[in-house]
Amino acid sequence: MEVSYSTVLRTIRKIEKTTKEAYVKGSYDPGNICEFDWGEVKLKINGKWTKLQMALFTSAFGNYRMAFLFNKQKMECFQEAHALFFNVVGGVYKTMVYDNMKVAVKRFVGTEKEPTEGLLKLSIYYGFGYRFCNVRRGNEKGHVERSVEVIRRKAFAFRDTFETLEEANQYLLEICKKRNRKPQPSQQNQTAEECLKQEHKNFLHLPHPFDAARIQNVRVDKYSTVVIDQSHYSVPDHLVGEIIKVKIYSNRILCFYEEKKIAEHIRLTGCHEWSLQLEHYIETLKKKPGALAGSTALQQADKKIKTIYETYYNSHTKEFIELMQYLKDETTLSEIEQCIEELRKIHPSHVTTDKIKILCAKNKNKVLSSVPKSKETKDIKDYAKSNLKLYDELFQTEAVGKEEAIA
């Protein structure tokens, strides 16, 4: 018996035919549900094409949208995005909805999903509940899937070049505000901003912003750095071998030792990068002054410091290290620049560390002597005089003349 190819195809279609999925339109109460998702954006930042992550929130009730740009989809970025969003809207939604992103879902336990520690901390701090979509069912969020494409297109279709990430975020904020002021036919021509005002009465209380930092205890290596996400950050060199606490934010790194802040860095975005501060290596450079000229710490130092070194201290390394110690402990770079300028006007050879110190101290004394006395200072002086008067009366002393006192 012969069977045609078309018959085989029809039979296969009948076997594979399934009922098409139907969707249920949802109705939402004000202030109840907000959806979150990530979207990828490629922008030119400071002349370099950079892949950025856009954190996007969409209110289920009024379709209010707000987005923020980050370098990565890390937990600290996820938490900071929530803190920023809740501050913008002025309250906290009762339920947040997520898909199966790594920052929200730690692991699958049967048909259930276990939340990450970072999401639990956020939920407890702000008091909101959360739920997750089914696997490969991002459409269950209903609003935010579409919002990612809308905001990405409206914001960056005509402009994709910025000097800094902060500038890009400010531009994105303005675009979101503009979109939220547009009338929505699906909301009886109300704007998203107007719908948001209706939600305020149902929001949870807004506490102080969440401290969105990932905390690690890290040992300081032989280069006097700590390694965070494969990049190095310097700390004072006397801490080599010690374990310190590091707070990792989306845009900065804070280092603590015995509860005291010892270093702060702008967070690096690449891998195997180094952020070194010259002041962290002063004690080592005192012992190894020859290492200064070719050091990465000097290369990364403030442009003004490098100019001072190259102009006046190229062959006086030890004096320069002494100047850096003085800058760290007692003065500011602007004061040093002022003193150098005064000395340079006399002659460039007068620019030495000792003369800079003397001139700085002299200038500070001038400032102190010109500061008017406060009421508190006057009260202390008057009180001291009254005590001395009582002392004179008690011991029947008399004022001593200037010449007698010298004698």
From TrEMBL:
Gene3D superfamilies: Ribonuclease H-like superfamily/Ribonuclease H (3.30.420.10). PROSITE patterns: INTEGRASE. It comes from the Bacteria. GO terms for biological process: DNA integration. GO terms for molecular function: nucleic acid binding. Belongs to the transposase IS21/IS408/IS1162 family. This is Integrase catalytic domain-containing protein.
